[in-house]
Amino acid sequence: MDSKLVIYNTLTRQKERFEPLNAPHVGMYVCGPTVYGDPHLGHARPAITFDLVFRYLKHLGYKVRYVRNITDVGHLEHDADEGEDKIAKKARLEQLEPMEIAQYYTNRYHAAMDALNVLRPSIEPHASGHIIEQQQLVQQILDNGLAYESNGSIYFDIEAYNKRAESTGSQFRYGVLSGRSLENIKDASRELDGVGEKKNQADFALWKKAQPEHIMRWPSPWSDGFPGWHCECTAMGRKYLGEEFDIHGGGMDLVFPHHECEIAQAVGSMGHQAVKYWMHNNMLTINGQKMGKSYNNFITLEQFFTGNHPLLEKAYSPMTIRFFVLSAHYRGTVDFSNEALVAAEKGLEKLLNAISDLERVQASAECDAETKKVVTELRQKCYDAMNDDFATPQVISYLFEACTTINKLVDHKATICADCLKELKETMSLFAFDILGLKAENKGSNDAREEAFGKVMDMVLELRAKAKADKDWATSDKIRDELAAAGFEVKDTKDGVTWKLNK
Ligand SMILES: [Zn+2]
Questions:
Q1: Which is it for the CA torsion 299, 303, 308, 311, positive or negative?
Q2: CA–centroid distance, residue 76 to ligand 1 (Å)
């Protein structure tokens, strides 16, 4: 299989031709959610980005095994080595089992991702279900002399790791992915926690001894405890995708420390890196500000879908959010604002309307020259954009160009032959629905339908009243009987006619 796809690799900082290790098979691992709160925009962007990658690779004919984990243990507050486990803390606050918290928010996450038309991954492993694999990883790193025990906890020894890299000429020093030097890593970690039981500030936990109050704990050769946050992805990636696999993805906020530590763990346990292409989506801002609970601009996906948040002027449908995310390149920043979302909503409507209008277009004997040019170039232009590191903004701009042609065809200001009409329909549907993953949404909410329904009933009852006033009993009885047969109960009261549906 010879595709022209190039992917930007965070590790090499350049675009590289995509050549899978074992074509036609592709292994892709993406860091999934830590399930202790409602899914928000920060979850939507990586999910949509890697859904696009998943869909496109499958379209190109690859057999993709897509693994996206659920973090339900080991992720401590502030992404640090100290502090409470995020899930355990929520469980304590809500007086629930930690696994009830994990299940509840996993369900919520799935529901939101389904709404965004994000396909489910091939395997969705839980960190808590892979404690043995993580312990094996820790033991291998210990056996290789690159970790040490301290008070029942195990830490990765970065100094020993870097010395080993120097003596073997390996490029995989700690900091290779993020481009950070050990000095500024030490400076950054100084503020978060003291050296405590670590040899060096930058060392990170592979296994943590559980404090007495810590309820999520497992026995190990070192202590009753739990794995460090970074272990799960290294252990589960290896288990399901092998010692080497093609793509590892996640948000840019995971480059350091999470993915930096994953590389160190892989090299420290196996002697080599696991991942061929490291891919990272850029972050989101809201009205130009970073999103976070402390900024008062934290908006969950459900709030976007319902419009129930002070910063939102209205509700935005899941497809509007998806279209908006895809309107920017995944490595560019995205700033959410009401204006930008309204623009995305209009753009999406224009695109979907044009695709549905295409069904009404009749083929002529011949195309006019301009239509022929647009149609014959469309597919290749979209492929070229996708092959250039998934350039969705370009794909969308080409689809919009085609919309202009479709509108001319609908207005009989252009003509198209049967072959080109078929090609245009196929290309629009392929890129809009199969690859970008858009779909038509029900116009109007249930409320709007209910309102329209009420108006129709008012009209029917008015006709009945008029028939009665005209002493047209045949008509008024017919309306009453037909309504009753359809399940409506109509009552004449002093204050007028009331009705209800007995179904
Ligand atoms: Zn991860």
A1: positive
A2: 13
Residue 28 near residue 64, CB atoms below 8 Å:
yes
469: which 2 tokens? Answer: 């006033």
Element of type H or E holding 241: helix 231-241
Q: Which residues pair with 280 in a beta bridge?
A: 250
- Ligand 1 centroid to Cα of residue 258, in Å, is 6
Distance 257 CA to ligand 1 centre (A): 10
Buried b (16+ CB within 10 A) or exposed e, 493-503: eeeeeeeeeee
Q: How far is the CA of 248 from the centre of ligand 1 (A)?
A: 9
How many A from CA of 227 to the centre of ligand 1?
13
Give 332 Cα–ligand 1 centroid separation in angstroms: 21
The secondary structure of residue 210, as a DSSP letter, is: P
Confidence at 213, pLDDT banded by 50, 70, 90:
confident
- Ligand 1 (ion): residues with CB under 5 Å are 31, 233
Q: Whats the size of the chain, residue-wise?
A: 503
Beta strands 147-150 and 289-290 are: unpaired
37-62 pLDDT, tens digit each:
999 988 999 999 999 999 999 999 99
Residue for token pair 């980005």? 49
pLDDT at 194: 46
What spacing in Å lies between the alpha carbon of 70 and ligand 1's midpoint? Answer: 9
- pLDDT digit string (tens) for 117-162? 999 999 999 999 999 999 999 999 999 999 999 999 999 999 999 9
Using DSSP's 3-state secondary structure scheme, residue 248 falls into strand
- Distance (angstroms) between ligand 1 centre and the Cα of 118 equals 19
